């Protein structure tokens, strides 16, 4: 009977039919050896491809570490045996982080201490950053949000351009070593964020509310007064600016992908309040109804808030960013 030999070349495989000679058993052994070698090679290639694909999908650890801080500035008293979780809100300016933080601080057991690294001396180098972080997580950092003795979760908000990305390796090491959970907060619509950035920058000098600058307001009347100013957006650099915003967020997620983290979008918090429950579950704190006194400034259609709307509409129409022209939030 005829024997089959499998030969593998660089680009193709071929089956050669040979007639049996004096030692058919010997030829069968050769066929068996070739088949085994071919099978091992194919299996190794498949395993490598599978390993590469799954390496891109390493899940965020679902557990969180608990701590029992011993502050130097006060005694935790009866709460000394209550565990504390560490967190940080990582975001960019005018993405709703102030509003989000007030929501968290409405929880009885959460202390989020604001934008502490807005002060240059606290982020001048890695040593000053670590020193500041140690004070916060040791409960020795006092703000109006501090719950002191009985805090169950302690944190603050940190903008990406405040030394976070410049020192990301050391900060990631710190987060992993101390068990700090990161909450990334971004906006799905960076065009609306740009309107907020420009309007807020203008008000720093114009002080539209009776000569006072306010980044956040607590009444519809104040919101209406600030929203009357319509910024002019540079249509020439707009697409590049939107790309830069997306790139910055992607870079941050890449740098911190080994930390325990979750990603939250401002728009989702507004349209789906169960997202706040998921944040509380992520922090391992009792789920409660959270509230904020802050009022949204730029409401309604974007066309009502951009002075050169026609130019912006023309620039983005037909591009991947066209959807931002009509998004609600």
From TrEMBL:
Q: Which InterPro entries match?
A: Nod_factor_sulfotransferase (IPR052796), P-loop_NTPase (IPR027417), Sulfotransferase_dom (IPR000863)
List the transmembrane segments. Answer: 25-43
Question: SUPFAM superfamilies annotated for this entry?
Answer: P-loop containing nucleoside triphosphate hydrolases
Q: Which Gene3D superfamilies match?
A: P-loop containing nucleotide triphosphate hydrolases
- Keyword line: Membrane, Transferase, Transmembrane, Transmembrane helix
Task: Select a single GO molecular function from the record's annotations and give it.
Answer: sulfotransferase activity
Looking at the record, the residues that make up the Sulfotransferase domain are: 89-299
EC id: 2.8.2.-
Q: Which family does it belong to?
A: Belongs to the sulfotransferase 1 family.
Instruction: Specify the protein name.
Output: Sulfotransferase
**Native organism:** Brassica carinata (Ethiopian mustard)
């Amino acid at each position: 009977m005829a024997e089959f030999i499998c030969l593998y070349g660089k680009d193709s495989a071929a089956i050669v039919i040979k007639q049996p000679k004096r030692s058919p058993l010997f030829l069968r052994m050769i066929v068996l050896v070739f088949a085994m070698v071919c099978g091992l090679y194919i299996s190794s290639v498949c395993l490598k491809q599978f390993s590469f694909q799954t390496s891109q999908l390493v899940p965020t650890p679902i557990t969180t570490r608990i701590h029992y801080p011993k502050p130097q500035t006060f005694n935790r008293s009866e709460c000394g045996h209550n565990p504390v979780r560490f967190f940080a809100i990582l975001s960019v300016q005018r993405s709703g982080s102030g509003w989000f933080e007030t929501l968290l601080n409405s929880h009885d057991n959460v202390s989020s201490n604001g934008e502490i690294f807005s002060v240059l001396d606290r982020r001048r180098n890695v040593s000053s950053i670590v020193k500041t972080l140690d004070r916060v997580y040791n409960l020795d950092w006092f703000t109006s949000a501090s719950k002191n003795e009985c805090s169950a979760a302690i944190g603050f908000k940190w903008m990406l351009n405040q030394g976070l990305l410049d020192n990301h390796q050391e900060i990631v090491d710190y987060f992993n070593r101390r068990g700090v959970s990161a909450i990334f907060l971004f906006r799905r619509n960076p065009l609306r964020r740009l309107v907020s950035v420009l309007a807020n920058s203008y008000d720093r000098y114009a002080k539209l509310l009776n000569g006072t600058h306010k980044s956040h307001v607590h009444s519809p009347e104040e919101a209406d007064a600030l929203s009357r100013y319509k910024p002019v957006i540079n249509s020439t650099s707009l697409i590049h600016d939107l790309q830069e915003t997306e790139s910055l967020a992607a870079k941050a997620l890449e740098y911190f992908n080994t930390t325990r983290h979750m990603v939250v979008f401002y728009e989702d918090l507004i349209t789906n309040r169960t997202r706040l429950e998921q944040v509380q579950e992520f922090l391992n704190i009792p789920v409660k109804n959270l509230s904020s006194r802050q009022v949204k400034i730029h409401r309604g259609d974007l066309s009502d808030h951009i002075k050169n709307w026609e130019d912006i509409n023309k620039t983005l129409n037909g591009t991947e960013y066209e959807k931002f022209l009509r998004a609600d939030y």
